[in-house]
């Protein structure tokens, strides 16, 4: 079943998604909103534990660039669980988020309930066919897609205003969320598809790691079996390719490139996505200065501030069980080779 689905998504014509963007925009418009006034949003696509938070924080340190973290978790993690913002303050006490939500006209629980209804009606795996193929949508789905996309746009635009930014980073990664942003008028979507060696990504997902942003109880980041994670790696990367293909500007980066040469990698990213590269927060080739961030969700490194040394995480090479490693290579081998990972 996985194979059929992968083949279907891999062969899908990107034009379908582009048509859908035009349909939402009222027809005839350009997909990524090149018209003036559209807000540049850098969407980091890919699989969890691929270094997206690290990249997010490097970008956040640049002039007039601000991150919102993994925006798709705003409602659950922020509003409902009141987890810690990246600045270390509880979400509802963070002055930046309070001002952002005020400007976005998102206030009480009534708003939240209706937003969550819209979200679950469009941002779920079972809605992927309709997100990819506009011909499958009915009027009700289109309405909810428009409404939820517009809610996200309002939050992003308000975050830009409050943080005095001209570019906003959303490191949500999930393809359904990315496809919604891609089809939302007013957003000029630019995609970074971040890929990591599947053995490293799978190994990272198998480790037990506490979520430090949950302070009133002990919670852990989700763990998965190697087989599950390997299939998910292929599927999410294939779908991330689809999201990247909907954007006029996109780049695929490897985690090992980012950790081996962070400064050069960021320069390459800015050139590909046509972002002004000013204020890149590097002290030297390995050390980066993390400034305060207001990410609503992401890897625990988002709580780090000050000087951080970027180093590759190669623990999987010595610690991964040989059977898991072979299984992962079997499932992911072809796509991993395509991305340039040596086996
Ligand atoms: Zn904050």
Structural commentary:
By secondary structure, this protein is an alpha/beta fold. It is built from 15 helices and 7 strands. The chain has helices at about 1-10, 15-25, 50-60, 75-80, 95-105, 110-120, 130, 140-160, 175-180, 200-205, 225-245, 255-260, 260-275, 315-320, 320-340; strands spanning about 40-45, 65-70, 165-175, 185-195, 250-255, 285-290, 305-310. Helix 5 (about 95-105) packs across helix 8 (about 140-160) and helix 10 crosses helix 11. The two termini are about 25 Å apart. The model is unreliable at about 1-15 and about 15-35 (pLDDT under 50). Bound molecules: zinc ion (ZN). Zinc ion binds near residues 87 and 94.
* Average pLDDT metric: 86
What portion of residues belong to β-strands?
5-15%
- Give helix % range: 40-55%
> Compute the gyration radius: what is it?
19 Å
- Structural class based on helices, strands and sheet pairing: alpha/beta
CATH A-level architecture: 3-Layer(aba) Sandwich
What is the CATH superfamily classification?
A: P-loop containing nucleotide triphosphate hydrolases
* Major β-sheet annotation: 5 strands, parallel
CATH class, anyone?
Alpha Beta
Instruction: Compute the separation of the termini in Å.
Output: 26 Å
Number of separate structural domains: 1
* Uncertain segments: 1-15, 17-35
CATH topology-level name: Rossmann fold
In N-to-C order, the SSE pattern is HHEHEHHHHHEHEHHEHHEEHH
Key attributes of the depicted protein:
343 residues, alpha/beta, Rossmann fold, 5-stranded parallel sheet, two-stranded antiparallel sheet, 15 helices, 7 strands, globular, binds zinc ion
């Amino acid at each position: 079943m996985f194979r059929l689905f992968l083949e279907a998504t891999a062969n899908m014509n990107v034009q379908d998604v582009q048509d859908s963007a035009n349909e939402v925009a009222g027809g005839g418009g350009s997909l990524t909103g090149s018209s003036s006034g559209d807000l540049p949003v850098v969407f980091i696509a890919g699989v969890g534990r691929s270094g997206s938070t690290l990249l997010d924080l490097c970008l956040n340190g640049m002039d007039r660039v601000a991150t919102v973290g993994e925006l798709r978790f705003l409602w659950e993690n922020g509003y409902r669980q009141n987890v810690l913002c990246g600045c270390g303050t509880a979400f509802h006490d963070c002055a930046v988020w309070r001002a952002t939500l005020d400007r976005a006209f998102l206030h009480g629980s009534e708003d939240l309930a209706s937003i969550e209804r819209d979200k679950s009606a469009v941002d779920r795996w079972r809605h992927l066919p309709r997100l990819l193929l506009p011909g499958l949508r009915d009027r009700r789905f289109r309405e909810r897609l428009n409404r939820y996309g517009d809610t996200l746009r309002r939050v992003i635009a308000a975050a830009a205003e409050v943080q005095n930014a001209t570019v906003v980073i959303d490191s949500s990664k999930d393809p359904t969320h990315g496809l919604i942003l891609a089809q939302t008028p007013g957003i000029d979507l630019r995609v970074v598809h971040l890929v990591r060696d599947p053995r490293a990504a799978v190994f990272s997902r198998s480790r037990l790691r506490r979520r430090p942003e949950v302070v009133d109880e002990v919670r852990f980041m989700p763990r998965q079996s190697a087989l599950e994670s390997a299939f998910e790696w292929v599927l999410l990367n294939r779908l991330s390719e689809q999201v990247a293909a909907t954007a006029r500007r996109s780049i695929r980066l490897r985690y090992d490139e980012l950790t081996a040469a962070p400064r050069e990698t960021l320069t390459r990213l800015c050139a590909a996505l046509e972002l002004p590269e000013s204020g890149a927060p590097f002290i030297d080739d390995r050390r980066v200065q993390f400034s305060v961030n207001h990410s609503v969700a992401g890897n625990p490194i988002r709580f780090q501030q000050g000087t951080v040394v970027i180093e590759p995480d190669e623990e999987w090479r010595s610690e991964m069980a040989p059977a898991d490693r072979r299984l992962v290579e079997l499932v992911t081998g072809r796509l991993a080779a395509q991305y340039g990972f040596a086996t």
